[in-house]
Design goal:
The structure holds 2 protein chains of 2 kinds. Chain A is mainly beta. Chain A has 2 helices and 14 strands. Chain A folds into 2 domains: 107 residues, Phage tail protein beta-alpha-beta fold; 57 residues, no CATH class. Chain A is 12% helix and 42% strand. In chain A, the strands form 5 sheets. Chain A has a 5-stranded antiparallel beta sheet, with no helix packed on it. In chain A, strands 5-9-8 form a 3-stranded mixed beta sheet, with helices on one face. In chain A, α1 runs antiparallel to α2. The longest helix of chain A has 12 residues. Chain A starts with 8 loop residues before the first strand and ends with a strand. Helices cover 26% and strands 18% of the residues of chain B. Chain B is built from 4 helices and 9 strands; from the N terminus they run αβββββββαββαα. Chain B starts with 8 loop residues before the first helix and ends in a 21-residue tail after the last helix. The chains are: A mainly beta, B alpha+beta. The interface between A and B is medium-sized, with 20 and 19 residues.
């Protein structure tokens, strides 16, 4: 939790040294890197993407939501692999995590950032901006942002950095 | 320096990136499976190598590789399973069977599009059916004789078979009459009828020859 931003995360790696603990977190419940066994599906009425991904998610302790569910046909042959591989196969790598940890298969939410913010810096060559705002949760990839000093940009990547002295920094890469 | 194994974090991360670019790479392969059962259109089969990352498959479509052909492979037959377009939702049996005898091979599902295949069994079946068609048994006093050949009242299929055997053997020793002028009637009238009959399925009254126009490769 940071400001109004609350993210469901799982600990990927952590250790302590000299009285400090450092942690690497991943969004969601930490299940997608777990292996799943092979499984064959067959249904003459059709097999939906949500069925296959739901099974995988349940197996590894994740939650998944398919925005535009569709039938794969009468068969699906799941290979024994990491759960993330099945996710990639069925999502076309078009997936993202909601703050509550649910993995969404589909396009990101669109719209624009409407809360207050200040652009502290822009690097035109990098395609990045540094933003100060009290509303961290409003900044998610897929949204657009416009200001008097910045032409309309679509957010692509957001990095939050929290320093030991309590300072927070949000760097945004735009498309 | 780093670990030359899967414990090499840098190499593992790089390999994961590469794999992520080809999420369906596994499905570009062709895999050896053994038939558990088949209905002539699909098979249930199991991998012959337990190290491949794929499961037992159920109801997978058979593509024989021959237009119009259908095959019922016998249990234990080795075959190749692949995935159309490298798509895990499109598994098919590819026409790469081992030499195990099939339960049944049919070439008639594409009749009209391919040359028909006639077998000795099919020809014999046609003759037997022909005799059965023209036979009349029972009381000779009631026999009308129109288009029929009279057999005794106890005529059975085995008796018909005996007649057929005798007559077909005699065919090879007869002194045939000189053909009529014009080359005879067989090529222009009868041959097309025989070809048409052999190209289609007709009832198997013997119970031993499933299809005319289809080779019977049953071993039992």
């Amino acid at each position: 939790m940071a400001g109004d931003l609350t993210l469901q995360c799982a600990v990927y790696r952590t250790d302590s040294f000299a009285g400090q603990r450092e942690v690497r977190l991943v969004g969601g419940f930490g299940g997608w890197r777990k292996p799943v066994s092979s499984q064959a599906y067959k249904n003459s009425a059709g097999i939906n993407v949500s069925l296959v991904l739901g099974d995988v998610a349940n197996t590894v302790g994740e939650k998944v939501s398919v925005s535009n569910d569709s039938s794969l046909g009468q068969h699906f042959v799941r290979e024994a692999a990491k759960a993330s591989r099945v996710l990639d196969q069925l999502s076309g790598s078009l997936w993202w995590s909601k703050p509550d940890g649910t993995t969404v298969v589909g396009d990101r939410v669109t719209g624009s950032v409407t809360s207050q913010f200040n652009i502290e810096d822009e690097k035109g060559d990098k395609g990045s901006i540094v933003v100060h705002t009290e509303h961290l949760a409003d900044w998610v990839p897929g949204l657009t942002v416009t200001s008097p000093t910045l032409s309309t940009k679509t957010l692509s990547f957001i990095r939050h950095t929290f320093e030991m002295d309590g300072k927070a920094k949000m760097e945004v890469l735009y498309v | 320096m780093s670990e030359p194994t899967d414990k090499d974090r840098l190499l593992s991360a790089f390999r994961a990136l590469v794999r992520a670019e080809f999420p369906t790479l596994t499905y570009a392969g062709v895999f050896s499976y053994a038939v558990q059962s088949s209905n002539g259109t699909t098979v249930d089969a199991s991998p012959t190598d337990s190290s491949i990352p794929l499961p037992d498959l159920v109801g997978i479509e058979i593509r024989t590789g021959i237009p119009g052909a259908a095959v019922t492979p016998s249990t234990g037959t080795l075959l190749a399973v692949g995935f159309l377009n490298s798509n895990p939702a499109l598994p098919v049996v590819l026409g790469a069977f081992d030499s195990s005898a099939a339960s049944l091979v049919k070439f008639d599902t594409g009749m009209g599009a391919v040359e028909h295949v006639a077998t000795v069994e099919g020809v014999v079946n046609m003759f037997i059916n022909f005799l059965y068609l023209i036979q009349q048994s029972g009381d000779p006093s009631t026999w009308t004789g129109s288009g029929k050949i009279f057999f005794s009242s106890d005529t059975t299929l085995s008796v018909l078979q005996g007649y057929l055997n005798t007559w077909l053997t005699a065919c090879g020793t007869l002194s045939l009459p000189t053909p009529a002028a014009g080359g005879g009637i067989l090529p222009v009238l009868v041959a097309p009828s025989i070809a048409g009959t052999l190209a289609a399925k007709i009832p198997d009254i013997t119970g031993f020859i499933p299809n005319i126009g289809s080779p019977n490769t049953r071993t039992a």
